[in-house]
Amino acid sequence: MKRETSEAAPGAAPVTTSGEARALVRSAVGERWESPSRRAHEQDVVDLLLVVSELAANAVRHGGGLDGVDVHVSDEGVRVAVHDHSDVVPEAAHRPGVLPVPHTSAGGYGWPLIHRLGREVRVTRRPRGGKTISVLVPLRAVPVDAGAPES
């Protein structure tokens, strides 16, 4: 099984926005998961980018800011780890994927969405403060037809 890690390249600007996080993850899929013989199923990539958006937005909104993103690529899919500055573990972390009660919450759909689209959701405190939330999002391979032009 091929297993790699991708962080911001040395000297590169840190990832501090949802858009930068999505770009990093999309690049990792293209460079290290896909190959001349396979592509990632587009719906899986959409799901992956949605999970990344939710994790990054939650880090900004509830975690004192986005403190980096790690991308681990394997044949199974992509594990995204989003770091923030807050030591507070979200209350929702103890309720995997439960939807909020309609009309009583201004939000709360991100965590259930992360659980429905991803696997192995983990919340860990970082030694220097803050926390990391990581999620494995499976990717299905779509074979590339050797005779067809790439799109």
Uncertain runs: 1-11
State the end-to-end distance: 27 Å
Q: Strands across the major sheet, in which order?
A: 1-3-4-6-5
Number of helices: 3
User: Order of helices and strands, N to C?
Assistant: EHEHEEHEEE
| Number of β-strand runs | 7
Gyration radius from CA atoms, angstroms: 16 Å
Helical percentage: 25-40%
What does this protein look like?
With 151 residues, the protein is α+β, with helices and mostly antiparallel strands. Helices cover 30% and strands 28% of the residues. A 5-stranded antiparallel beta sheet has the order 1-3-4-6-5, with helices on one face. Strands 2-7 form a two-stranded antiparallel sheet. Helix 1 (18-33) packs antiparallel against helix 2 (42-62) and helix 2 (42-62) runs antiparallel to helix 3 (110-117). The longest helix has 21 residues, at 42-62. The two termini are 27 Å apart.
Overview features:
single chain, about 150 residues, alpha+beta, five-stranded antiparallel β-sheet, two-stranded antiparallel sheet, 3 helices, disordered N terminus
Summarize the structure.
With 151 residues, the protein is of the alpha+beta class. Helix content is 30%, strand content 28%.
SSE arrangement:
Blueprint: E1 3-6, H1 18-33, E2 38-40, H2 42-62, E3 66-74, E4 77-84, H3 110-117, E5 119-125, E6 131-138, E7 141-143
Antiparallel strand pairs: 1-3, 2-7, 3-4, 4-6, 5-6
